[in-house]
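Why do we bother with holo predictions? Because pocket geometry can differ from the apo form. Keep that in mind while you read this record for S-adenosylmethionine.
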Amino acid sequence: MSTRKEPTDLLEEELQELRHEQAALPSHNLKDEDFDDEDNADDDDDDHDYNEDGGHDDDYDDDGDDYDDDGDARNAGKAGRHNGWVPPGADNQGGDEDVFGTDLDEHFYIPRRLEDKCASLVEAVNDFHFAMLNDSQRNDFYRQALARQVKPGDVVLEIGTGSGLLAMLAASAGAKHVYTIEANRHLAALARKIIRANNLQDKITVINKLSTNVHVGHDFPERCDVLVSEILGTLLLGESALQFVADARRRLLKKDAAIIPRAGRQFISLVQSNELRQITSVQKWEGFDLHEFNALQDTVSLVFTKQYGFRFSSVKHDLLVAKQQVCDVDFTRDGPGSLGEEVIIPIVAEADGTVDAVLTYWEAYGDKDEQLVMSTEPEATKDNFARDMQWGQALQLVEDLDNEGDEPKPFVVSKGERIDLIVRFSEDSAVMQFALSRPQHAA
Ligand SMILES: C[S@@+](CC[C@H](N)C(=O)[O-])C[C@H]1O[C@@H](n2cnc3c(N)ncnc32)[C@H](O)[C@@H]1O
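The structure, written out:
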């Protein structure tokens, strides 16, 4: 069985190693959002010479990037515990210690096809890749965006090929060539197989690396015209799209390259729900008073609807604040840190009630005028089971922190009341945490 788990932090020493590696890379300052005109294909490092043979064949291999994988992509959720995230199954230098099935009893059978795969990869694929690939509206969003953006002669770059589907859509949209990057070697190998089976091997090159280790002049001859990626999480930026896209923009793309998706917005609603309350707190059962058990209620972390095991649209609820934007991301311009550390957004309650949770969802836009929209809002995904099963939404339970005590106190609002929504972003902007406060209490 595969469930979306919270990401586990990298062990401190692995993190140190990762930071050390990143610091050692030639042009890898992910915080630097400015496009460096000097740093283009012509003057890229001499020691990363483009290999004529390598350019259009599909024999790239993992060069031993020393990244470890931890946590599940669409599961990044614990506020403030996100920095250093890499995709699940990103190749290790020292081989796969995280082998699938090692935690099963010895007499349990594992098919040979899975024996050499790493557990976090198998988990991620079964957790969301299949649902994602069957989210037909998602695939169509990318097909339409690519059809609008790819011009004859364009070279397209993709971050994160998975099965190779978007790379094939880009080739079908008329790209001269597609370079598609994949951090996991098994996925890269499968994508090559699939691309060959679809007779697109002359148009698409799969590069088995983490995108931050790819270099112009070594992996492909010049900066690319279009970037496409689908590294959006249950939280818009949960799969570190801001870091990876900003890095690609700075080092791997032409100055006015088209970027798909071009932008995105994270939204929240404030919800009241007895059904949600029933599975996240307790009051009494028959004559027994149990409310003190709520002392352990988690009002700190974002939890994914998949983890609760429901589609939010199937849970009875009232919207006390219907839809509020909490951040606006422009992938053609923004980078890690663009969102700052904290914002306070004044909002007005639209009905009387108790705010049980902050519900989060997002929209991503495939074109400049935002006609092409992909959304995870519960209403928009009602008829899209696959989307709810791959992304779903995230929820953070709410307590009245202006009246903090041994147990969480309900945050009760009246229609028309002004409240402050405090949004805290993790250092890399990938994860957020929410709090509600009455204006007189806000610092
Ligand atoms: C959510 S899947 C999308 C796959 C495919 N693009 C699609 O849309 O069907 C993301 C894939 O990108 C890979 N990935 C994520 N970030 C990456 C990065 N920075 N460099 C290389 N691969 C990455 C993951 O291993 C995963 O296979």
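The chain has twelve helices and 18 strands.
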